[in-house]
Design brief:
The protein is of the alpha/beta class. The chain contains nine helices and seven strands, in the order βαβαβαβαβαβααβαα. It is about 50% helix and about 15% strand. The chain has a seven-stranded parallel beta sheet, with helices on both faces. α1 links the parallel β1 and β2.
């Protein structure tokens, strides 16, 4: 099998690459950091191709597909993404717009392009990495990030049902983790109060569940419970609780 992973130079993407390599999967790894990708390439036991590009630029996303469309991709993992924490009006568009481009547009373009190829073959797996944030009505102090992840969850669920009704052998899944110990926290300028899961554990769980063709993949018992009980709270209550959580993250970061 052959897998293409975006955002593969660190965190969950890196661990997914390692886990798939242990299953003898050929890899195409995509990220902005050449140094990190080259180090990972040397470490992996399977054939690995690296592509250095910036998925916040639409043209480069399209070029990535053109470059890899004839590689007979069996697994597409849309993992690239980032967030930022702070008041919406104080955040800069120079951060917001690349976030939207990476978290939404790149996922949308690559999912559609590779899905069409997989449908022709009637086989393949797509794994879109979202967040538990995607289940909530909104994310005060992380408004743009929460909105992007809601998009990814909604898009993936809709496509999953379309494929199911078509009786297609192509599968699409959405990974929705809670806090994970990755570099995301530094980029987003937050520090979680609760203990995050290990990225290696999340990666293994996500890949295993993807192969089982699960629609929503939620690692960790706590996050499963939070999702379940959130159905019993009003949107206003969830917004209030989310605001308090984000406020604590910012305070913890400043300590």
């Amino acid at each position: 099998m052959k897998a293409l992973i975006t955002g593969a130079s660190s965190g969950i993407g890196l661990e997914m690459a390692k886990y798939l390599a242990s299953k003898k999967t050929e890899l195409i790894l995509v990220a902005r950091s050449r140094d990190k990708l080259e180090r990972l390439q040397e470490e992996l036991p399977t054939k690995t191709t690296i592509i250095v590009t910036d998925l916040s630029v639409e043209q480069k996303v399209k070029e990535l597909y053109v470059l890899t469309k004839n590689e007979n991709i069996d697994i597409l993992i849309n993992n690239a993404g980032f967030g930022y924490c702070g008041d919406f009006d104080k955040g800069e568009l120079t951060v917001d717009l690349p976030m939207i481009e990476t978290n939404i547009k790149a996922v949308h373009i690559l999912t559609k392009a590779f899905m069409r190829d997989m449908i022709k073959k009637d086989k393949g797996y797509i794994l879109n990495v979202a967040s538990s944030a995607g289940f909530l009505p909104g994310g005060p102090l992380m408004a743009t990030y929460y909105a992007t992840k809601s998009y990814v969850v909604s898009l993936t669920e809709a496509i999953y049902y379309e494929l199911k009704k078509r009786k297609s052998n192509v599968s699409i899944s959405c990974l929705c983790p809670g806090p994970v110990n990755t570099n995301f926290n530094n980029v987003a300028n937050v520090e979680f109060k609760i203990r995050g899961l290990k990225s290696s554990e999340v990666a293994r769980y996500a890949i295993d569940e993807m192969f089982k063709k699960k629609m929503l993949i939620i690692p960790g018992f706590k996050i499963k419970c939070i999702k379940f009980f959130s159905h019993f709270l009003s949107d206003r209550s969830l917004l209030k609780k989310t605001y308090k959580i984000q406020k604590k993250k910012i305070k913890n970061r400043k300590k």
